[in-house]
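Name: Triosephosphate isomerase
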Amino acid sequence: MRQPLIMGNWKMNTSREEGVQLAKALAEGLGSVAQEVAVCVPFVYLSDVKNALAGSPIAVGAQNVADQASGAYTGEVSATMLADCGIKYALVGHSERRSYYGDTNQSVANRFCQALKQNVIPVLCVGETLDEREQNRTFQVVDEQLDAVIDAAGIEAFGKAVIAYEPVWAIGTGKTATDEQAQEVHQYIRQRIAERSAAVAEKVQILYGGSVKPDNAKGLFAMPDIDGGLVGGASLDAKGFLQICHSV
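Structure predicted for Triosephosphate isomerase:
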């Protein structure tokens, strides 16, 4: 039985004080839950938020990780550095990184591998744009994004990773895939993994990451292949995020 995971992505938001207060509110309000909970926060606040969450079950993740181990890569943050700070997760291939900052399937695969080497759990984000969906290319795009990582890391790597399906057309637009639309792609991803390893496919957590909110979370999380959510804007509101956590 896969354990659900609810992960907040704060993106480039909050001040240091706001982040600490949000983390404390989450820790105080979470209570006893069976699922895993994590927040991915800006690099400069990782240590502050981790300290604020000390003693709580909420894990901390980074929003990106370098595709190189170390060296002359100004502005990058390596997986070694994240591990050194006790960070559990790192997002790789988020649609905003792919769209705005030139991340390619290959560079995302490299980031994934770097995280794994340092026992930081990579959260591989995959998903299609509105144009790609309208051209019936959803599965082709997802295949290309998954295959780049499988080729680089091997299928067994997904036994130590998380996948997040994020339809790009449903991020920050107010649009959300229906429960059935989301389930269709999640099922496809799991079947795609199962073609290489049924054991890994059964184990891997696949999160939905397209505008998850308190009012749609329960329906999404009830789908058999949706193991939780990668929550964007709603994770900046403690009350709303906690409602999502308790929707599992």
